[in-house]
Amino acid sequence: MKFTTSILGLVAIAQAASAHYMFNTLIHGTESSTAAVREAQNNSPVRPVTSLDMRCNTNPIPAKETITVSAGDTIGFRLSAAIFHQGPASIYLGKAPGNAVDWDGSGENWFKIAEWGATYNPFGFTDLGKTELTTTIPKDTPSGQYLVRAEQIALHVLPPEFYVGCAQINVVNGGSGNPSKVSIPGHISPNDPGINVDIYQVPSPTSYTVPGPTVWRG
């Protein structure tokens, strides 16, 4: 009996781990890079929303390069596995004070450039099942070095799980935009309705706002 219980416990752990994912490949233009990613130590989620690990995950492995991209180019991430948990996703840019390799993501330097929100009838989220999340760098984004950051909020449990990842980029051919910026953590309040919603409630939610700042497109 104890042996059976142990096996069932191991199976449950394995199933939980298989439902996790990492943003482990940067997509830039028509190319990709793993060397520019600050790779997470494992695929475990981050919690709570006030943790410093919300920036770029828990003690990520340093990136080996900073990729040069042009404002207007495609940017985003490929995941280690398809998004398994219901919840929204976002992509942020963080302006490094100097070289991206030297920046820990601190300060009021972050702005959101894309998000994936809810659908209704039935209630769900547009990022579910995706293996890539991509957008374009707004053409008005000032040139310089940035961290590009992906965030997916898994709402199957409360408080939710956060899957985050960062990569280093150098934006060229940029513009003169001046988006409002936030700090991470601090971009989402622990009391934000978007991270406290019961996605299994009956009747289902009829509205939903993706947590964090509004998307800036220049």
What does this entry show, briefly?
By secondary structure, the chain is mainly beta. It has one helix at 2-18, and strands spanning 23-28, 31-33, 37-38, 67-70, 74-79, 89-95, 110-116, 118-119, 124-125, 132-136, 144-154, 161-172. A hairpin with a 2-residue loop joins β1 (23-28) and β2 (31-33).
Rg, Cα atoms, Å: 18 Å
Q: How widely separated are the two ends?
A: 62 Å
Strand content: 25-35%
User: What would the average pLDDT be, to the nearest integer?
Assistant: 93
What does this structure look like?
By secondary structure, the chain is mainly β. 8% of the residues lie in helices and 31% in strands. It is built from one helix and twelve strands, in the order H-E-E-E-E-E-E-E-E-E-E-E-E. Strands 3, 4, 6, 7, 11 and 12 form a six-stranded mixed sheet that branches. It has a four-stranded antiparallel sheet with strand order 2-1-5-10, with no helix packed on it. It has a two-stranded antiparallel ribbon with strand order 8-9. Strand 1 and strand 2 form a beta hairpin. The longest helix is centred in the first third of the chain and has 17 residues, at 2-18. The radius of gyration is 18 Å and the shape is globular.
Helix and strand topology:
Elements: H1 2-18, E1 23-28, E2 31-33, E3 37-38, E4 67-70, E5 74-79, E6 89-95, E7 110-116, E8 118-119, E9 124-125, E10 132-136, E11 144-154, E12 161-172
Parallel strand pairs: 4-12
Antiparallel strand pairs: 1-2, 1-5, 3-12, 5-10, 6-7, 6-11, 8-9, 11-12
Features:
single chain, mainly beta, six-stranded mixed beta sheet, four-stranded antiparallel beta sheet, disordered N terminus
